[in-house]
Design brief:
The structure holds two protein chains of two kinds.
Chain A: E1 5-11, H1 15-26, E2 31-34, H2 64-69, E3 96-97, H3 130-134, H4 144-158, H5 183-195, E4 203-204, H6 240-250, E5 254-257, E6 260-268, E7 273-281, E8 287-297, H7 301-309, E9 338-344, E10 350-353, E11 360-362, E12 379-387, H8 401-408, E13 413-421, E14 430-438, E15 444-449, H9 454-473, E16 477-483, E17 514-515, E18 518-523, H10 538-558
Chain B: H1 3-14, H2 41-54, H3 68-78, H4 82-103, H5 112-130, H6 150-163, H7 166-172, E1 183-187
The chains are: A alpha/beta, B mainly alpha.
Chain lengths: 561, 197
């Protein structure tokens, strides 16, 4: 390319990168969006989008060969034939597990916006104040009021469906009509409200699956196939491809370059500004340099931090942002895989139609209002009720026609829910560069040293017991609590590592997501989170990104950047 | 949105050979054809026969109609661990031996009633053997550390291969490719089939 200069460079094309590209291009900036992996074109490249189990060679199940190539992915559900090819190659891009850390990465245009859970919740006002009130880590440099309008802004565009439930703990947003609870969930919701005198609620999940069309974006409402992870031909859920990328392209201001691994942010120490980036072409290994006025780092929490660690190392040994002593520290995830299940009696004459790609949500109630526990923060539950299918245990049915008839019909109603708990920011939970190992491109790799601690372990007791209590209070039978192994990363909500704060000595980013040591570098993905809340984080990344982009353009106009 | 514009934009901007690149998203895996995988045509036929006893054709198709034998051989070969496969293979030898010692006949020559009696006794034996350590609802090869009774493996393979097949999902269960809307409360009458997915 003749001209390698842009107004802005966006590194990464996932949920936050897509938003950065959209906002900056719509404000007239010429933007280069760099993506380390392959391109995926909306609809055209969703090669499995119409497939059913019988269209896969092993009906979707992973093979031994796949498990061998993807030892991390194979630990949990993401390794399957339907989304094969959509997760980072573990041989090309290894990492070190000082302690076990399950890292699920989407290295392609769209990133994990094509593979996300889509549950979309606002942080509440206490979430932004809890660190300060409790003396944990550092204070958020912003309050709920600072981000509230941006939540509304991104909700309107992304298309979030949900009810306005009027709960302080889970602020209402600008929603499309909710995906409704089914008859059993509705009934249990009423019973829980009654049993706990309105202190606990079971509500419709709020999800980035649309219930109304967005013709202006060429998107149709959800068709209830529940095949989001295969790519949606209707654009029924929010992804970079369905939503932000076309908006950015429409401006004529976007250049998207896949196969572009940014290895370093170039830094001018006299001006204390970044000048551009150095890129390895993932296919040719050639090095390119691109320059720009501002840089948005949206490479996903850990890779954004990795990039900072590899930048400006002449000035700071630990990289750009390391002067705080916090770069790479305070890793957070949501700890989960604990909850309860139960059998629901009395609805044998009811069933449902359609495959809802969402469920119910039970907002946090612990350490809320007058409630006080022997740990800090809280958790929410996600779950659903459904009738069992042919996979149910039917040992007593034996074999033959009776078995076939029995399991061809729906089984009893079952309900289950899993808690997602807040993990405290802890300095010693960290990622760092391992000097002894490199990836396919000769770049250093990350080492993970993260564990849950006393606060999370105490919380997990409630996470199970409260689920059991709620189902028992609702009069359900066969109530069974469960707790499965949880290791950090499994929540696929990695956060922290370049936190926002009020003081450059204790935080990497300021209140506008600017790197204190290079104000024209913005980090607006999960790395910026000062605390984790217990709600799914992606909506907050969207809002923070739109807010930072607006600020960045204003600052550019004022000549401050 | 205009996909063509997006494509043009990408090509023009990157200067890289993006279109026609051999790196594809959502890797399309080739279907298996059951050749040279260690299980013979006779094995596949045998799996189909046993499968038909477990899920027989009634007024709807059965295991043979779905050719579960072929899928079972594929799953055993590619998805099972060597340990799991050994338990299963040894089990098939035991099953055939059982048929001969009880009825002095090959399994495939037994009457429907004899097959049902033999397999039912193995099913009960398996239930006693497994106790709580194995659940048929566990996904195929999700937990390789669990080695249940071979008949449980067989039963699970038959059920999975049948209900994940097009025949099982669309002719025996209820299937709707694009539901279009969600209704959380529809009437259900005994005998109505379960949703396939």
């Amino acid at each position: 390319m003749a001209n390698n200069h842009y107004d802005a460079i966006v590194i990464g094309s996932g949920i936050s990168g897509g938003w950065a590209a959209k906002e900056l291009t719509e404000k007239g900036l010429k933007v280069l969006m760099l993506e380390r992996g392959k391109n995926i074109e909306h609809v055209k490249d969703y090669q499995n989008m119409h497939k059913e189990s019988w269209d896969y060679p092993h009906r979707g199940r992973p093979t031994q060969a796949m498990k061998k190539d993807f030892p991390v992915l194979s630990r949990d559900y993401p390794l399957n034939e339907a989304t094969f090819g959509m997760w980072a190659n573990e041989q090309e891009s290894p990492y070190i597990e000082k302690k076990r850390f399950d890292w699920y990465r989407g290295y392609h245009v769209g990133g994990r916006s094509l593979l996300w859970g889509r549950q979309s919740y606002r942080l509440n006002s206490e979430d932004f104040m809890a660190n300060a009130k409790e003396g944990i880590a550092v204070d958020w440099p912003i309050r709920y009021e600072d981000i509230a309008p941006w939540y509304g802004y991104v909700e309107r565009f992304a298309g979030i469906s949900g009810n306005r439930d009027g709960l302080n703990v889970l602020p209402d947003g600008e929603f499309q009509p909710a995906m409704l609870l089914n008859c059993v969930e509705k009934d249990i919701s009423a019973r829980i409200t009654k049993a706990f005198k309105g202190s606990r609620h079971l509500i419709s999940g709020r999800t980035a699956n649309m219930t109304e069309d967005k013709p202006e974006q060429g998107r149709t409402s959800c068709q209830y196939r529940n095949k989001c992870w295969l790519g949606c031909p209707f654009g029924g859920f929010f992804s970079t491809q369905s939503s932000t990328l076309p908006a950015a392209v429409k401006t004529g201001n976007l250049t998207l370059r896949p196969f572009s691994i940014v290895k370093e942010i170039l830094y001018n120490k006299d001006k204390k500004r970044a000048t551009g980036v150095s890129v390895i072409d993932a296919q040719t290994n050639e090095i390119y340099e691109f320059t720009s006025k501002i840089i948005f780092v949206n490479a996903s929490s850990f890779n954004s931090t990795w990039l900072l660690m590899n930048s400006a190392t002449d000035e700071w040994e630990g990289g750009l942002g390391s002067s705080s002593g916090e770069l790479g520290h305070n890793v957070m995830d949501h700890h989960f895989r604990v909850g309860a299940s139960a059998t629901v009696e009395g609805f044998d004459d009811k069933y449902y139609y359609g495959r809802r790609p969402s469920g119910f949500y039970v907002p946090r109630f612990r350490n809320w209002g007058s409630d006080k526990r022997d740990y800090l923060r809280g958790f929410g539950y996600q779950g659903s009720a459904s009738r069992q299918g042919w996979k149910r245990d039917v040992a007593e049915m034996g074999i033959g026609a009776d078995l076939k008839d029995a399991i061809s019909e729906p089984g009893p109603w079952q309900i289950g829910m899993t808690a997602f708990g807040e993990m405290l920011p802890e300095h010693s939970n960290r990622i760092y560069l391992d000097p002894n190992k490199t990836d396919k491109w000769g770049l250093p790799v990350l080492a993970m040293d993260v564990a849950i601690r006393e606060n999370e372990l105490r919380m997990r007791k409630d996470m199970q017991q409260d689920a059991v209590d709620m189902f028992e209070a609702a009069g359900l039978t066969n109530v069974q609590g469960f707790e499965k192994e949880y290791y950090p990363g499994m929540g696929i909500h990695e956060m922290g590592t370049a936190r926002m704060g009020r003081d450059p000595k204790t935080s990497v980013l300021n209140a506008h997501n600017q790197v204190w040591d290079a104000l024209n570098v913005f980090v607006t993905d999960g790395a910026c989170m000062t605390s984790a809340s217990c709600v799914n984080p992606s909506l907050t990344y969207m809002a923070l990104t739109a807010r930072a982009a607006s600020f960045a353009v204003d600052e550019l106009k004022k000549g401050n950047l | 949105m205009k996909r063509r514009d997006l494509l043009k934009m990408i090509v023009a901007a990157t200067g890289t050979a993006l279109v026609g690149s051999n790196v594809l998203a959502y890797t399309v895996l080739p279907m298996e054809d059951n050749q040279g995988n260690g299980y013979s045509k006779d094995d596949v036929a045998f799996f189909n026969e046993v499968g038909e006893s477990i899920i027989p054709r009634t007024d709807t198709p059965g295991a043979k109609d779905a050719n579960v034998g072929s899928m079972i051989a594929i799953l055993l070969t590619d998805c099972y661990s060597p340990d799991q496969r050994k338990v299963f293979n040894d089990g098939m030898v035991a099953l055939k031996f059982n048929a001969k010692s009880r009825y002095s006949k090959e399994f495939v020559l037994l009457t429907y009633e004899q097959r049902l009696a033999l397999l039912s006794s193995l099913d009960e034996e398996a239930n006693r053997h497994n106790k709580k350590m194995f659940s048929i609802k566990t996904e195929i090869n999700a937990d390789e550390s669990v080695l249940p009774h071979y008949f449980s493996m067989l039963k699970q393979l038959v059920l999975f291969s049948f209900f994940s097949s097009e025949v099982g999902a669309t002719k025996v269960l209820r299937y709707e490719a694009v539901p279009g809307f969600y209704d959380g409360e529809i009437p259900y009458r005994k005998g109505d089939k379960a949703w396939a997915t």
